[in-house]
Amino acid sequence: MMMRQVLQDFSHSLARSGCVVLALWKFPRRLVSPAMFCSFGRVCWGKGELQFLPFDVLLIYVLGKVVCDRLQRYKRGAKMTTIHWFRKGLRLHDNPALQAAVADNFELRPVFVLDPWFVSNARVGKNRWRFLAQTLNDLDVTLKAIGSRLYVIRGKPEEVFPKLFEDWKVQKITWEVDTEPYARSRDEKVEKLARECGVKVVSLVGHTLYNTEKIIATNLGKTPLTYQSLQSLVAKMGPPPYPVPALSSLPTSCIIQPQAPSGSTYNLPSLSELGIDESELGPCLYPGGETEALARLNKYMERKSWVCKFEKPKTSPNSLQPSTTVLSPYLKFGCLSPRTMYHRLIEVYKGSNHTQPPVSLLGQLLWREFFYTVGATTSNFDQMEGNPVCRQIPWIRDEKKMKAWEFGQTGFPFIDAIMTQLRKEGWIHHLARHAVACFLTRGDLWQPWEDGMKVFEELLLDADWSLNAGNWMWLSASAFFHQYFRVYSPIAFGKQTDKHGDYIRKYLPQLKKFPDNYIYEPWKAPLSVQKAANCIIGQDYPRPIVDHDIARKTNLDRMSKAYAAGKNKKSSAGSGPPAKKSRK
Q1: What's the pLDDT tens digit per position in 409-424?
Q2: What does the UniProt cofactor note say (predicted)?
């Protein structure tokens, strides 16, 4: 394996000088003999020559005619290129892979690949497409400020990159590590193509606080399945690396000259190209991009007392203005580096009493790290079947119940207001997510958590594969959290932080004239009150889809049986009881 690595490194060095390199182990066996090893001989091949190089277990040959053609090209002044492939990590600050892209002083081509099939088929709602379009525009502006630009390439990555490698004389490609299964499969394909083309691949961690592989290694190859175990592991590992400096300027040699391709070929996508009708969009409450991300971070870090006292469970799920930072969409797209946020928080905490994980702001970053780590190493993490950490629960699919929940028509105003806010704005508070997820699954409707996860995947600005799947398993008591008897009331929970129902009145205006004592349970209002409110229950607003008290009792019994079945199965396999879980 060491010799193979030597060969690969040597191949890359020759490729960077313009040579096409073929490795010995790819030769047909009949062309290779043991006598060729350790040779300094010379063999004629047509008009070219095959040089044997002094390595013990390798032989590299340079194909003469192609070498001459390539060398002539470079003699005529052609320049070598590095591609930095933006996927997530859509920022210039703390971007190790982007820094690696300029290290060799080759021309820099920052690329974003837009797959038309993905645009047409992905579970992405209009708010998130708008956020991405704004983010790409912001990235293009910041790149232009340092003498570059963003090249948006249409097509599948495995199809477009070989042509780019050839057309742009690419010597190296860099990207940020992505731990999602789809991304890993995609990256493996592109890396294979790159190496076949003699292109060096550099992938570096930047989307998480730590390298998830190092977390697993620190845990002796095992996935940490509790928040506390992750805390213990990162305590052993020490603080995450400090952010690398932002790319504030480019070496002259990295700047593309005016004769580079221009025009509309590589332009940013319009909303119409993304399938979005602008007339259907509501107000943009959370503009996308690194500029906005850093501005929001700075604004909150200036509120030192608020940061130090922050406790997630004590924030409000139904305040009219967000009671948290709403930095999650910026972390999801990599507009904001988690390491930058981490070390800014540490600076704010210095010399002050402050809350601790899991409820602190720092604790929220560790929750993110926890789910990323588990998601990166657990097969079928986004589904129940075949998922080793997920309890097998016999959910019952009911399309009517599912649609009522998805479109805010359950007849429970608190639940429907949350789902309406989600569809309109693309963001809801973490505890609001808890309430509607519990309601859909073990609390009231007994629907599969995977179906709720898919709705969130479409509608959330911050839909993040690992966090989305992990939190749905948590809230359905399928994994990580096992106190299934703790059920969020669709009536009482909202009253704790909004007794007058102002949140409901904002998102369900048909109910705005109901008195406070009926706003959470309008079906209990006398008909005269309903008429006075100009909203007849069952006509202008639906009746409750279930009786909460009956549904809760029925589902508690179902959960008890599912847990008993799971316990018996584990006992027969010799497994111990689940570890105690932390408060989230």
Answers
A1: 999 999 999 999 999 9
A2: Binds 1 FAD per subunit.
**Which residue has tokens 């519990």?**
438
Count of helices and strands (H, E) across the chain: 23, 9
Helix axes 413-425, 399-406, angle to 10 degrees: 70
pTM: 0.85
Annotated binding site: 324-328, 364-371, 462-464
- Give dist(CA 227, CA 491) in Å, integer: 30
Rounded-to-integer distance, Cα 390 and Cα 445, Å: 19
Spatial contact of 534 and 477, defined as CB atoms under 8 Å apart: no
Residues 90 and 9: their CA atoms lie apart, in Å, by 29
DSSP characters over 56-108 = SS--EEE-HHHHHHHHHHHHTT---EEEEEESS--SSTT-HHHHHHTTT-PEE
Residue with tokens 């949140």: 503
Domains of the chain: 2-75 (no CATH), 81-207 (3.40.50.620), 208-247+295-373 (1.25.40.80), 399-573 (1.10.579.10)
Give 3-state DSSP helix, strand, coil % of the chain, rounded to 5: 50, 10, 45
List the beta bridge partners of residue 51: 42
Q: CA–CA separation, 560 vs 581, rounded Å?
A: 18
Over the stretch 481-514, which tens digit does the pLDDT of each residue have? 999 999 999 999 999 999 999 999 999 999 999 9
Q: Is the dihedral of CA 67, 68, 69, 70 positive or negative?
A: positive
Distance CA 331, CA 341 (A): 9
Report the C-alpha gap between 341 and 335 in whole angstroms: 11
CA 227 to chain centre: 19
Provide CB contacts within 8 A for 181, sequence distance 6+.
381
E strands of 104-168, at which residues?
107-114, 151-154
Sign of the alpha-carbon torsion through 565, 566, 569, 571? negative
Nearest 10 degrees: Cα torsion 389, 392, 398, 404: -30
Is the Cβ–Cβ distance between 381 and 552 less than 8 Å? no
Provide the 10 A C-beta neighbour count for residue 66.
13
- Which tokens hold the place of 429? 């508070």
98-123 pLDDT, tens digit each: 999 999 999 999 999 999 888 888 89
Q: What angle do CA 479, 485, 490 make, to 5 degrees?
A: 100
Cβ pair 373, 216 in contact under 8 A: yes
φ and ψ at residue 448, rounded to 5 degrees:
-60, 135
Residue 103: CB partners within 8 Å, gap ≥ 6?
none
Enumerate the known binding-site residues for FAD. Answer: 324-328, 364-371, 462-464
Q: How far apart are CA 193 and CA 36, in angstroms?
A: 29
